Amino acid sequence: MGSEGAADAVRLDKWLWAARFFKTRSAATEAVTGGKVEVNGDHAKPARAVRPGDMVTLRLAPFTWELAVTGTAERRGSAAQAETLYRETPASLAARTALGDQLRMAPDVSVSAGRPTKQDRRAMDRLRGRK
Q1: How many CA atoms within 13 Å lie on the side-chain side of 49?
Q2: Residue 3 pLDDT
């Protein structure tokens, strides 16, 4: 595994940045250090070498991505180039889609801006059956 294996390998934080999962390399490094990324089922460090064929699990709340590395890049390119660096597993895609649909259908839980106005109070009274 001479120079060919070393040429295909790239740092995990660089790969995550080049694949456009994070806007900055430092954000990718923080995610890896924070335990949000696994490579081949093991927790990884930012300098871990990633090669085509590796499986990367990435937890970006509320979604979990299971990715197969298909290519490496030292530099960040276009979104079209970034898509060629990985392939998401069908199970991961189905789970993300289902969770996205569930979140989209969830009721809006907005927090009020403070104390209710007189109009708000009267509306609440009507809902409670008072007056």
Answers
A1: 6
A2: 40
